[in-house]
């Protein structure tokens, strides 16, 4: 009896001093709620395995220092977007508008990032992993501002908000420096137009809400195209529409098949356009017109390279 009493007192003391504490349930991290265009998603910890449905999302995730586990149309990205370079390993989802669901499932993403052009597949994608919708295009807003918003949203989601702000500040510095170079070459009042050559007679003419048009606006240059625009910020035009640009500075974005360029550039109508006669036409290396913030900064720098090179050759 005396031994049982001593043991009982000892056990009480051990509990009181924490030596033999009762089992306490571990603390569970509180999930944070993230809002996107089609609802909300909760994550207790920032997702790291990210699948993306298009190239603007791809370049933004890469810029933030994360390698997406699943990416669409990788060869097209390398040809049109170029930078940032893709990681060594990832699952190729196939077409941007119809990602391979089986490949996507096998990539085991923590989150799937899509834009509104594939929002019709939201429910199917959400059955595989939490899916979030962040868009730059198909709105009447500045694509450059939407690209900054996208960078901040993904930065917050991945716990990299400070990195997102660094990317935005760096892109703005690059754009401003490129603008200064162009201004020194052609003055403050130059009007620009950005086109993509589709074939010998048809073009995409990018307006003020497009990524490159809104980048020009950020640089302080007017856009020579004042015609109607679609949700992606461009108008489908013909050579006659280019004549309406007047004495503008015109940049055409590569890549363009060589036979298409050869036929177009040999056309008497093309040669008679004001920007050709005044030698204010510039070839800009591959830049993705529907990209994110880094595509905008890349375009600004490559436009400045093209303008300063052409101006120097003509002087």
How would you characterize the overall build of this protein?
This protein is of the alpha/beta class and 315 residues long. Helices cover 43% and strands 17% of the residues. The chain contains 13 helices and 13 strands. The protein has helices at residues 2-17, 55-63, 74-80, 101-106, 122-126, 143-157, 161-186, 211-219, 239-243, 258-265, 268-272, 274-277, 293-314, and strands at 32-36, 39-43, 50-52, 70-71, 91-92, 111-114, 131-133, 191-197, 202-206, 222-223, 234-238, 249-253, 281-284. The protein is elongated, with a radius of gyration of 27 Å. The model is unreliable at 1-28 (pLDDT under 50).
Keyword list:
alpha/beta, three-stranded parallel sheet, disordered N terminus, single chain, 17% strand, 315 residues, six-stranded mixed sheet
Q: What is the oligomer described by this structure?
A: single chain
| H/E element sequence | HEEEHEHEHEHEHHEEHEEHEHHHEH
Task: Estimate what percentage of residues fall within beta strands.
Answer: 15-25%
Rg over CA atoms: 27 Å
Give the secondary structure arrangement, pairings included:
Layout: H1 2-17, E1 32-36, E2 39-43, E3 50-52, H2 55-63, E4 70-71, H3 74-80, E5 91-92, H4 101-106, E6 111-114, H5 122-126, E7 131-133, H6 143-157, H7 161-186, E8 191-197, E9 202-206, H8 211-219, E10 222-223, E11 234-238, H9 239-243, E12 249-253, H10 258-265, H11 268-272, H12 274-277, E13 281-284, H13 293-314
Parallel strand pairs: 3-6, 4-5, 6-7, 8-10, 8-12, 12-13
Antiparallel strand pairs: 1-2, 8-9, 9-11
């Amino acid at each position: 009896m005396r031994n049982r009493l001593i043991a009982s007192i000892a056990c009480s003391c051990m509990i009181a001093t924490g030596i033999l504490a009762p089992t306490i349930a571990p603390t569970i991290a509180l999930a944070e709620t993230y809002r996107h265009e089609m609802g909300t998603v909760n994550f207790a910890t920032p997702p790291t395995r990210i699948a993306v449905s298009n190239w603007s999302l791809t370049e933004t995730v890469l810029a933030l220092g994360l390698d997406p586990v699943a990416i669409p149309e990788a060869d097209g990205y390398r040809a049109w977007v170029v930078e940032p370079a893709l990681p060594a390993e990832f699952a190729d989802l196939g077409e941007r508008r119809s990602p391979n669901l089986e490949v996507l499932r096998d990539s085991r993403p923590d989150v799937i990032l899509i834009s509104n052009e594939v929002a019709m597949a939201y429910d199917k994608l959400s059955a595989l992993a939490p899916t979030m919708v962040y868009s730059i295009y198909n709105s009447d807003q500045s694509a450059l501002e939407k690209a900054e918003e996208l960078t901040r949203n993904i930065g917050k989601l991945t716990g990299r908000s400070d990195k997102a702000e660094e990317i935005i500040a760096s892109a703005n510095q690059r754009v401003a420096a490129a603008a200064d170079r162009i201004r020194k070459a052609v003055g403050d009042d130059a009007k620009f137009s950005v086109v993509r050559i589709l074939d010998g007679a048809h073009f995409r003419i990018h307006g003020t809400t497009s990524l490159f048009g809104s980048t020009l606006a950020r640089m302080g240059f007017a856009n020579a195209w004042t015609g109607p625009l679609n949700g992606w910020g461009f108008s489908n035009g013909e050579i006659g529409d280019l004549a309406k640009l007047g004495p503008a500075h015109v940049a055409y974005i590569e890549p363009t098949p060589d036979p298409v360029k050869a036929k177009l550039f040999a056309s008497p109508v093309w040669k008679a356009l004001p920007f050709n006669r005044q030698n204010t036409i510039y070839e800009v290396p591959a830049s993705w017109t529907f990209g994110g913030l880094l595509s905008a900064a890349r375009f600004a720098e490559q436009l400045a390279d093209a303008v300063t090179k052409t101006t120097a050759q003509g002087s």
